[in-house]
Structure formats: structure tokens, C-alpha cells
Write a structure and sequence with these properties.
Length: 783
């Protein structure tokens, strides 16, 4: 010990130490600040929890009540977008799906029930499968050798804190088959995750403010991948005008729901026990005992559901039918302008009528359409040696007439990282998973640039990606109404040899947003009835997106199921067009005069639709009580059917009938020409009872059953659809005169033969007369 240390030690035995005193004084002075900082830190870290509790407390809920409202939902990876099992390849294979959470819900629990298998060649100490949520590792799955090559199942708990509004769930294979030099793309590096694996979420509702600015939330949330189920409440039996207003709303929500599908159960004077709902009220008739102030005009309001504090009611009200429709249209076309808990509509500009084939969801028929209008620009770019597909979705009008055409022209512009050397890299193009063509990806030109190249590069420096362009045609028969173009960049990995193969993920590919697809050269002409066009696109009713030339004939005494079927059908139409049915007409069976010049949907269950009996001779199917009648076709047995190049263009009515009596709940969809206006269409949705009519709507919402609805008559039996042989008896649309004559003669070979014989006779007669006149003139000159 040094002398200096000894002196210090002696002083410490006789004096009060200064350092502890100073430290204590500093802590006393800093204590309030520390407490404030700690409180701020706690508030910041728990901000989400505080906001949630505040919203719930505003609704008057206790924590126990909130937990009792929690529900568990499950989604398969297929439902989340994985059409095929996830293939994880290479030393770092990665694939996944996206999912989202509604704004009025929080996740309190999450599980992934995964079905998977992996390669027996993987080294367990170096390999594993990561489960990532929003790029954060939620769990790691080991790959022991004794379980390799087997179909395995595993349940993984995902921390709810990793889940936000918009999420991505990824499965990542970290794979190695040797401790020495390895091929990063070796065939033994694989794992497979089934798309039947399920993501299970426990969701707790959170009350939102009564604010119309939130619309369409909470009634529809684009984050929700589940089908929309939104009840509509009427005060007593709704009038035609009330149903028109409700149809505008259901078609709007159907357009928003899109692929999810939407159902609209109808209720009378009854507020649902839980969940959100739409309430339509006219005058002093307010359903469910709701207290509403005196109306000053068309009014829209958002209020809590008295039976479910975490849910909302959207009140659409008017003093008369006109004001009710104004309020409904204001929500359907002007919801972004609304705000506050209550809005009184003082004025609504007249909605401009739609033009044929201008539905927002349909491919424009009057100009080339850019890919940038059909897909987000970010989705048109991919990277890496195993990129995802570039997908461009579009909806075609179902009545495009592609006779004697090459197909739909596409002007494709794309760019890609050039290859170092010529190899097998290609851009593969498909339509609805049907291969169209393959375009080679070129290599860099290693030759010295010419004088022209140097001059061009001085003005426009060369970019990283090579621009390219290709023009091709897609055969029309390869494209259904809902179509998808798929572009896949395949990059060939050239082997360098042992310990030299290094994968650099420095390759890029893009499809330019200014690439175009053009259907403007195609006329609109279609043989009818065609229930495939109806089930896939709502045609011919959706030809005008606002349904201004459509009339819905409701039964005499509709049941709640009839109302629900009508509302859900309008939702199907809205899903097809992407636009609310603001001009649809709803009439009764006695208002036949109102059907002139319109396409008609007739809804009936049991014996409540007298118009079906009145039009029985025109319809291919008749239903009266338990009795049924079907017109059958002998088209398949015609001797000379091979003359007709397209059997779906038969133009003769059914020859035979089958009638029987049965007590069943089958639903029927039938199409025929309108007895009121030739060239107009009627689609009949009917059943012996309301339950059968519900089956028809379920079939229209089921993507697997929709494909089976075709021809002139379809019978729906639960999850089975049987379509009868189709015979089109009339046509809709028009062709230019020359094309019509050519097409008509092509379908009538005997007439064409007869015209050929007549033409030959006329030519022969003209030649005979001409030659005889010349002979007479020659003889006269000799004389």
C-alpha cells in the first residue's frame, strides 16, 4: 500500500465521506425526474394497451367481458393465397403468404398448425426451418434425420406481439447436405409445406368511435379475409323503393368484398344479437325500437348496436322513399365525404348513367389498357433466382366475339438483369396456368462497342436492366371471364465446379406498367341463354354497371329468405362490376308493363311468384308446388350436328319434356328470352321452398360450383350442380353487316352451297349472254 493510500485510509476513519453524501443529494434531486421518465417509458411501451383499454372502457366493457367476446378463426394457407404447397429449395429457400387483421380486432393468440416434410439429406446440426412473421423469427423447427422424408405435423405458438394490421407469414429453409463445399441449388436441398396448413387466430373485438368517416369500416374491413356477412334490417315488409335502396348498399358492399363473397341476411323489426348491421328506416317506422330524432331529410348515422356494444349499426333513413334512396346512394357513391356520427344529406348531384361495358372491374372495351391500371407497380417487379410469379388480373366482358381472330393482342414491355453468357434463362408467359410462350433472356454483349453504340451511350447511359418488347396474342378460348396473366422469370444457374458455386441474388426482372392488353377490336355478340355468363359475370344485367336496364321481380308475399336472396344477388352483381346498383328497378309480378326494354330477374320460392306460371311456355323449366317440368334437348342426337363448327350455337328449342312430382329443396336457375321484349333476357331463380333459393345463392358465391353453372338450366342440390344440355335460341349484341353475313353463312353450309350453285348459274347465264352477244356482233360484221 502506498503512503498516499495510507493517509487516505486514516482520514476516512475520522471524517464523514463526501462522495456518498454527494451521490445521495444527487439522487434526491433527480428522483422526480426519474419517476417522470419511468412513467413516460411505461406509457410509451404500453401505448397500444392503453388505447385498447380506453376504447373498450368507452363501450362500458370490463376485461372479462372483452375476453368472453373473443373468437377463434382459422385460415388454410390456400385460403391465404397459396394455390399450391410451398416449395422451399436451396440453402435458403423461402416462401409464404400474407394475412391481415381488422381494425376493430386485436390478436390475443395465434397458432400455426403446419403439415410439412423435408429431405433426408439435410444435416440436422446445420439445417432447420424458420417460421417468420413480418421478417421476425417466431419459431425454429428442427429437422432430425429419423423423421426425414415423412409427412409431419406440428403446432407452433406465434407471439401475438409480432402481428400487426398487415402481415406476412414466411417459411424459410436453412439447408445443408455437406460440411464441405456444396452446391447451393442441389436437388437434395428441399422442404415441402402443405397449403392445407392452418393459421389459427384468437381475435378480441375493440369498439370504434361512431364516425361515418370510418366507412366502410367496421361493416366491411379490407383486412378481413373472411366472407362478409352483413344483416340488413327493415321496418316491416319493405316496399320496392326500400329494396332498391337496400340493393344499392348490398351491391356496394359486394363490390368491396370482392373475392371474399358477401351475404346479406334480411331481418324485420329485429336488431341482430351481435355483430354489425345496416338498418333502413322510412318516416317514423324505425325497426327494433331504436330511438331516432325527427328527420330533417336524407340521413345517415352510425350508432352502437344495443345488443353488442363492440358492434355498430349504420342507419340509412329518409322521410319518404325518395329521401331513403338518396341516403343509400350517398353512402354507396359518396361515403368518403361523410363524417361525424350523423350526417344529413342536403344535396346529392344526379348520378350520371353508366355506359355499356364501362364497369370499373371490367377490361375497358374502347382502348388499350395498361398493366399499371390492373396491378400495383410493386407487384410487377421480382428479384432472385427463384422469384414468385408476376400476376396481372383482369375481368373480360363475357360476350366478346372472337370468331376468326388471332386472339387478344398484348404489347409486352419488360426488363431484366442481363446474363453473363448465353444460357437457358427465359421469361415464361402463361394465362390461367396455361402455357403461352417462352422468351429467352439475352446475355451481355462482350464485343467492343461500335461508334454508334458509344454515341448512343453518351446521350443515354446504359441501364442495369435490358429493355425488351414482345407482341403476341392470347387465344380468346383460353381466357374465362376472370382471367390472370402470369409471368415467370427462370434464371439458369450455371455450374462453376466444386467450391466455386456461389449464389448471388443480384438478378432482377420486371414487367413494365405501360405494357398493354387491348380488346377494343372485338365486337360484342353472344348466343343466349348462357348461364355461364350470368354466374361468372352477372351478364347481361351487368352490361350497364348501375343496372339501369335491369328489373328484379319479387314474389307476391316475399319471405325473409326471398329478401336475403335478392340482396345477396345484388352483392354478386356488385362483385362483378365493382360499382353499386344505383339504378336497379324492383317491381311486383303484376307490373309486367315496367319490364319492357329491360333484362329481368324473376325470384320465387314455393307458389309465391305468379309470373313464373304466366311465362311457363317461354321458360325451359316450370315449378308449381311439388310439380316440375324440364325441357330436354335432342341436340346431341342430331344427325348433321357435325356441320355446325360450334355446338353451343344451336338455335332450336328443346324437343322433349319431363314432368314429375317431388318433395325436395332443389334450387333452379333458368334462362330464356323475355316474352315482353325480344332480344332481352330473363333469368329465373326459383325453388319449391325458401331453403332451395338459398342454395342457389350459395352456388353463385362458391367458386367451385360457379364453374358448373352453364347452359340454359342448372339444378342446385346442396354442393352439386347439374346443368342441362344448352340450346341458345337468341343472340344479344351486334356485328357489322359484312362480318354478320360471313358468320351467318359459315353456320349454314347448306345455304352456302345453295348460294354457290345460284352464283354459278348466274355467272353461267351472264357468260352465255355475253358470248352470244359477241357471236352475233361478229356475224353481223361479216355480213
Amino acid at each position: 500500500m502506498t503512503p498516499h493510500s495510507t493517509v487516505t485510509s486514516k482520514r476516512s476513519t475520522h471524517r464523514v465521506p463526501l462522495q456518498p453524501v454527494i451521490l445521495a443529494i444527487a439522487l434526491m434531486l433527480a428522483a422526480p425526474g426519474l419517476q417522470t421518465a419511468q412513467a413516460a417509458t411505461k406509457a410509451k411501451s404500453g401505448s397500444n394497451r392503453i388505447i385498447t383499454e380506453t376504447a373498450a372502457e368507452a363501450a362500458g366493457e370490463t376485461p372479462s367481458q372483452r375476453s368472453s367476446h373473443a373468437r377463434t378463426v382459422s385460415f388454410s394457407l390456400k385460403q391465404l393465397g397459396a394455390l399450391f404447397p410451398l416449395q422451399l429449395r436451396g440453402i435458403r429457400g423461402n416462401s409464404g403468404v400474407t394475412f391481415s387483421i381488422r381494425a376493430d380486432q386485436v390478436v390475443t393468440g395465434a397458432k400455426l398448425k403446419i403439415n410439412y416434410a423435408y429431405s433426408p439429406a439435410l444435416i440436422p446440426q446445420l439445417s432447420h426451418i424458420n417460421v417468420l412473421v413480418n421478417e421476425q423469427v417466431a419459431a425454429t423447427i428442427p429437422v432430425p434425420t429419423e423423421q426425414a422424408g415423412q409427412n409431419l405435423q406440428r403446432e407452433i405458438v406465434i407471439p401475438p406481439r409480432l402481428i400487426t394490421e398487415f402481415n406476412r407469414l414466411n417459411l424459410e429453409l436453412i439447408g445443408h447436405y455437406t460440411r464441405d463445399c456444396e452446391d447451393p441449388a442441389h436437388s437434395s436441398l428441399w422442404a415441402n409445406v402443405g397449403n392445407d396448413s392452418t393459421l389459427e387466430l384468437t381475435l378480441t373485438p375493440v369498439a370504434q368511435a361512431n364516425d361515418l368517416a370510418l366507412l366502410p369500416q367496421p361493416f366491411f374491413d379490407r383486412r378481413d379475409a373472411l366472407p362478409l356477412n352483413l344483416p340488413m334490417v327493415f321496418a316491416g315488409a319493405p316496399s320496392g323503393a326500400t329494396l332498391e335502396a337496400a340493393g344499392a348498399l348490398s351491391s356496394w358492399f359486394g363490390a368491396l368484398a370482392g373475392y371474399r363473397g358477401a351475404r346479406f341476411p334480411a331481418l324485420q323489426d329485429q336488431i341482430p344479437a351481435q355483430g354489425n348491421a345496416i338498418v333502413l328506416a322510412m318516416g317514423n317506422q324505425v325497426p327494433g325500437g331504436l330511438n331516432v330524432s325527427a328527420l330533417q331529410g336524407p340521413t345517415v348515422a352510425m350508432v352502437p348496436n344495443p345488443n353488442d356494444p363492440s358492434a355498430k349499426l349504420l342507419l340509412v333513413m329518409g322521410r319518404d322513399a325518395k329521401e331513403l334512396k338518396i341516403a343509400a346512394n350517398a353512402v354507396a357513391v359518396g361515403s368518403p365525404a361523410l363524417s361525424g356520427p350523423v350526417a344529413t344529406i342536403t344535396s346529392l348531384s344526379e348520378i350520371k348513367p353508366r355506359k355499356p361495358y364501362d364497369a370499373p372491374n371490367w377490361l375497358a372495351s374502347d382502348r388499350p389498357v395498361k398493366f399499371g391500371e390492373l396491378a400495383l407497380e410493386d407487384t410487377l417487379n421480382v428479384a432472385g433466382y427463384s422469384p414468385d410469379l408476376i400476376r396481372v388480373n383482369f375481368h373480360l366482358p363475357p360476350d366478346l366475339f372472337g370468331w376468326r381472330s388471332k386472339g387478344i393482342p398484348v404489347d409486352l414491355k419488360y426488363r431484366y438483369t442481363p446474363r453473363l453468357n448465353t444460357d437457358k434463362s427465359t421469361l415464361n408467359i402463361s394465362a390461367n396456368q396455361q402455357f403461352l410462350r417462352s422468351l429467352p433472356l439475352l446475355a451481355i454483349n462482350h464485343d467492343a462497342p461500335s461508334a454508334l453504340d458509344r454515341a448512343v451511350n453518351a446521350v443515354v447511359p446504359p441501364g442495369e436492366l435490358i429493355p425488351a418488347r414482345e407482341q403476341f396474342h392470347i387465344p380468346l378460348f383460353k381466357l374465362p371471364a376472370r382471367a390472370q396473366l402470369q409471368f415467370h422469370y427462370f434464371h439458369d444457374m450455371v455450374k462453376q465446379g466444386a467450391c466455386k458455386d456461389v449464389v448471388l441474388e443480384n438478378v432482377r426482372g420486371t414487367v413494365e406498367p405501360d405494357s398493354t392488353i387491348d380488346i377494343s377490336s372485338f365486337p360484342h355478340f353472344l348466343a343466349m341463354p348462357d348461364l355461364a355468363a350470368f354466374s361468372n359475370s352477372g351478364f347481361p344485367f351487368t352490361r350497364l354497371a348501375d343496372l339501369s336496364e335491369t328489373a328484379i321481380v319479387m314474389p307476391d308475399k316475399p319471405s325473409l329468405n326471398d329478401y336475403s336472396s335478392y340482396l345477396s344477388l345484388l352483392g354478386v352483381f356488385g362483385r362483378s362490376t365493382g360499382y353499386p346498383a344505383t339504378a336497379v328497378s324492383v317491381v311486383g309480378p303484376k307490373q309486367v308493363d315496367a319490364l319492357a326494354g329491360k333484362d329481368v330477374v324473376v325470384i320465387g320460392s314455393g307458389n309465391n311468384q305468379p309470373l313464373l306460371a304466366q311465362w311457363a311456355d317461354a321458360s325451359p323449366v316450370g315449378m308449381q308446388g311439388g310439380s316440375r317440368r324440364f325441357n330436354l334437348s335432342d341436340f346431341a342426337y342430331r344427325v348433321f350436328s357435325w356441320w355446325d363448327p360450334s355446338q353451343r350455337d344451336g338455335a332450336k328449342p328443346g324437343r322433349n319434356q319431363v314432368a314429375f312430382t317431388a318433395d325436395s329443396t332443389d334450387g333452379v336457375i333458368a334462362g330464356f328470352e323475355s316474352p315482353v321484349s325480344p332480344g332481352r333476357s330473363v333469368v329465373q331463380l326459383s325453388s319449391n321452398n325458401p331453403e332451395g333459393l338459398s342454395q342457389v345463392i350459395e352456388a353463385l358465391l362458391d367458386p367451385d360450383l360457379v364453374k358448373e353453372i352453364q347452359g340454359s338450366t342448372s339444378v342446385v342440390r346442396g354442393k352439386q350442380v347439374d346443368s342441362l344440355v344448352a340450346e341458345q335460341t337468341y343472340w344479344v349484341g351486334r356485328l357489322d353487316p359484312l362480318t354478320w353475313v360471313q358468320w351467318y353463312l359459315s353456320r349454314s353450309p347448306l345455304l352456302l352451297l345453295a348460294l354457290g350453285i345460284v352464283a354459278a348459274l348466274l355467272i353461267g347465264v351472264l357468260l352465255f349472254l355475253s358470248l352470244r352477244a359477241r357471236a352475233r356482233a361478229r356475224l353481223k360484221n361479216k355480213d
